[in-house]
Amino acid sequence: MGDIHRDTDRKTQLKSFDDSKSGVKGLVDSGATKIPPVFLHNQIKIQENSANHQLTIPTVDLKGLEKDEAIRREIIQKVKEASESWGFFQIVNHGIPQSVMDGVIDGVRKFHEQDVEVKKEFYTRDFTKTFVYNSNFDLFSAPAANWRDTISSIMAPQPPDPEVLPAVCRDILIDYSNHVKKLGLNLFELLSEALGLESNRLTEMACAEGLFVIGHYYPACPEPELTLGTSNHTDSGFLTILIQDQMGGLQVLHDNQWVDVLPLPGALVVNIADLLQLITNDKFKSVNHRVLARNVGPRISIASFFRTHFQEGIASRVYGPIKELTTEENPPVYRETTIKEYVAHYYNKGLDGTSALSRFKIA
User: Which one of 126, 165, 252, 326 has the minimum C-beta count within 10 Å?
Assistant: First the structure.
């Protein structure tokens, strides 16, 4: 009976939090000095891998990419090594102006810090909508809630009607997304060549066609050691491009150790996501990562996922391991799936620390 009561009480707390439509920021603004029980994470899981503060993820300088073939080959080799061994790397000289990067961080901040009654108009759990504001997409399925609020927008393949986007961040979100789409095409060329394929192979497979942009807002937490900003997880697309402010807190799991992804001025973080691991037959790695809660804040980050969402059409395209990357000695590891099937599974599962890819492995 005790478990049933606890479960009922938890669901009541989650519903009350969700119905407030004011998110984690609302808790902080109300003067909370302790985190609600639904945000308490399993301490053993938080501490099960040690942190290594000496290691750093690779950095790839894209300067000279289009002008010098020798430099291009060197960049491709660095991208290949990083994608195979780390699944994460930072890029500099990527072509997105600092003013645009600063602007989108400021735009996300302004949305989350505007009057709660204005924000509430956008609060929803209908993830088919072009623009969504809520706290924890997996609030009712994850083992514990995360200390963050989020906006998300479907920016491609069909550009959104600007009127659907909030005025406070509309223009900069569109501008930043256009820059990210262009950068993504360059990165998919490099990744294709790093796999030994024609440079246009991944773009021909429509890996760069969808773009789903999310803006996280992590308020200061009164008990950061008891929760997480984002749980241990992998990403649900082909590739993610992340811009983070200078607060820090992002960690990558490498050789069973948590490695800090230290903010580099002007840099973007790139990581391989699940669907790219699937189509490369495990050659490129989609790696677990998390965000620590902090007693200072807010921390702001914008993640751009190259994948479609729940739309018909391209989301129904079938993906499996690329034939040229499989042999008799290295047979397909995964069955074929669609983006729609994969994303639906990812959303239903939530951020529980396990890989969504395991469901698609060939036994």
Answer: 126
